[in-house]
Amino acid sequence: MDAVPVTVTRAAVQDVPLEIQAIGNVEAYATVSVKAQITGPILQVHFGEGDFVKRGDLLFTIDPAPFEAQLSQAEATLARDEAMSSQAEANRRRDAAQAKFQLDQAARYQALLTRGIIGRDQAEQIQASADALSQTVRADEAAIKSSEAAVAASRAAVVNTRIQLGYTEIRSPLDGRTGNLTLKAGNVVSANTIELISINQVQPIYVTFAVPEAHLPRVKQFMAEGKLPVTAIPQDSSAQPETGVLTFIDNNVDMTTGTIKLKGTFGNAGRKLWPGQFARVTLKLTTQRGAVVVPSQAVQIGQDGAFVYVVKADQTVEARPVEAGTRFDQGTVIQSGLAAGDTVVTEGQLRLAPGMKIRLREGRGGGPQGGSVRGGGAGAPQGGPARRDGTGGLRSRPADSK
Asked: Are residues 160 and 300 in the same domain?
């Protein structure tokens, strides 16, 4: 029988990152809806729609004239109340001095009454005057408390008016990008009604994605050992992936889908990620060291399970049962049944049977001395990101060959 033309490659030993792939949604790190806290006409808008603004930047100016007038009135009322408070204190001191004099005089007259020098009526009259002045002092003290309360209320009114005046300048509460402007300069805005602008913080930024709940134990296990790197790239984009870390695991599994929500935080220095975008997400759990890797097309499925055709020294093949592990891009990790350096058939298996002789196709495959999985025969898996898996399936991809 003629030799069957095939393509072959060698099983290689590589460090294979164990990864979870999913489709995620980009979310702003923080979103603020800017509204006016006072009513008045907008005098000026200090930014353009879609501009990036910094925390504290002036966004809007509302007419301050009514509030400046209210502040002047409140300050005048405070000055009046402080003057009245000072007057009440002066009255108390005056009446207190007179009361002390009258009490001393009443004591002297009481002594004269005891000695019979003056009459009882005269002594009692002096005592009554002293008691009246004591009550006047008490009334003065009450007046002082009332004036102090009035001063405190006036001061509060001044502070409140200054706060209201401060609201005539609306400033950005965070660093971010502005959205659509709903009211232009000249319009009258009402307090806490219309959203003037929304600001999204995009540096840093979140990417939210869901993975099957079966991966949750491993995610928690590896996250406990250290920060897990996450890469994300917008759909239909050829840009380099953005790199972040896993920062959030939801506190419950979605019972309708059987998935758990995760969030990665990205610095987004180049602003490639944009709120609302879909992105391809790769969560790296760990690296499987020294894995035996072959192209996925080398692995065949028979009645007894997975197997590969291994080329022997006499250029015949044997069907060797293997235990296939995780798959990546165009490669598969072989858990058992194959050793590094074994030559396997990658194309032409349909015409093969155990013991048949093979020959290499011209220009295809590396032969027994051919290349490894990294760059050897046809169909060898290439490095780089793993294939997108919309179901969030667990995948691996090859790292640098040993």
From this structure: no
Q: Report pTM.
A: 0.66
For the stretch 60-69, pLDDT in tens is 999 999 999 9
SS3 210: strand
Closest CA to 20 of 216, 151, 177, 172: 216
Distances (CA, A) of 311 to 45, 293, 314: 76, 16, 8
What residue type is 227 in one-letter code?
K
In angstroms, rounded to a whole number, what is the distance separating the alpha carbons of residues 38 and 60?
Answer: 12
> CB of 201 within 8 A of CB of 28?
yes
Cα separation, 368 vs 345, whole angstroms: 10
Could you tell me which of 16, 372, 47 has the C-alpha nearest to residue 177?
Answer: 47
Is the residue at 199 inside a domain? Answer: no
SS3 400: coil
- φ/ψ of residue 215, rounded to 5: -85, -10
Whether 250 and 287 share a structural domain? yes
The tally of domains found in the chain comes to 3
Q: What is the C-alpha separation between 47 and 150, in angstroms, rounded?
A: 43
Confidence of residue 107 (pLDDT cuts 50, 70, 90): confident
Residue 41 sits in which domain range? 37-61+170-193
Q: Let me know if residue 402 belongs to a domain.
A: no
pLDDT tens column, 124-182: 888 888 888 888 888 888 989 999 999 999 999 999 999 999 999 999 999 999 999 99
Q: How far apart are CA 200 and CA 268, in angstroms?
A: 13
**Rounded to whole angstroms, how far apart are CA atoms 364 and 372?**
13
31 domain residue, yes or no: no
Rg over alpha carbons for the chain, rounded to the nearest Å, is: 43
What was the pLDDT predicted at 1?
A: 62
Task: Say which amino acid occupies 245.
Answer: V
pLDDT exceeds 90 at position 59: yes
Residues 183 and 279 both lie in one domain: no
Q: Which amino acid is at 304?
A: D
Residue 330 has pLDDT above 70, yes or no: yes
